[in-house]
Amino acid sequence: MKYTVTVGSRTIEIEVRGDTILVDGEAIAAHLTSVPQTPLRHLRLDGRARTMAMERADDGWTVQWRGETWPVTVLDERTRTLRELTGQGMRTDAGGSVKAPMPGLVLRLEVEVGQRVEAGAGVVVLEAMKMENEIKSPGAGTVTAIHVKTGQAVDKGSVLVEVEPEA
Predict the structure, then answer these.
(1) 78 φ, ψ (degrees, to nearest 5)
(2) Model pLDDT for residues 84-111, shown as the tens digit of each residue
(3) Beta strand pairing status for 2-7 and 10-17?
C-alpha cells in the first residue's frame, strides 16, 4: 500500500511491503508496535529502536520524540487522489502569512521584500530534527514582509513571511 506522509512541511512517499517499507524509493526494514492503553509506539527502523508518543489530532497525528513535537498527516493513495480530484484539503488562499509548521532554526531566506513568488515557491528553509524543511508560499503574490533572519530560532506557528495576493 502506498502512502503520502507529511511531517511538518516535509512530504515523504512511503510504500509498505510487509516488514519492509520503501521511503522515497529506498528499502528500509520497519516494524511499528503500540504499547497497550498508552499513546506510546515502538518503531524499529533498520534495527534501530525508537519510542515515541503518537496521538490523534484534528487533521492527522501529533508525534512527540526526544522532546520535539511534529504534526503528521498520512494519506493513502486513494484518499490522496480523491482529495486532489475534488480540491478537498487543498489551500485556496492566494497569499497571507507563511507560518512555521514546527519549531526550528532559520537556515536560509529564499525571498526578499518586493519579490514576486508563485504558489508553492520556497520562501524559508528551517532546520528541525537535523533535517532541512523548505517552507512554501501558500499562493502567488508579492513578499511584503520578512519577520525572521538567518540563524533565528522560531516556534511552531511563528509568522515567517507575509505574501500579498496578486490582484
Answers:
(1) -65, -50
(2) 665 444 343 445 788 887 888 999 999 9
(3) antiparallel
What is the average per-residue pLDDT within 137-148? Answer: 89
Distance from C-alpha of 1 to C-alpha of 13, rounded to nearest angstrom: 11
DSSP SS3 for 132: strand
The dihedral region occupied by 120, where left means phi > 0, alpha psi between -120 and 50, and beta the remainder, is left
| pTM > 0.70 | no
Q: What are the residues whose beta carbons fall under 8 Å from the beta carbon of 125, sequence distance 6 or more?
A: 106, 107, 108, 110, 132, 133, 134, 135
Closest CA to 160 of 94, 115, 97: 97
Strand partners, 132: 127
pLDDT at 93: 43
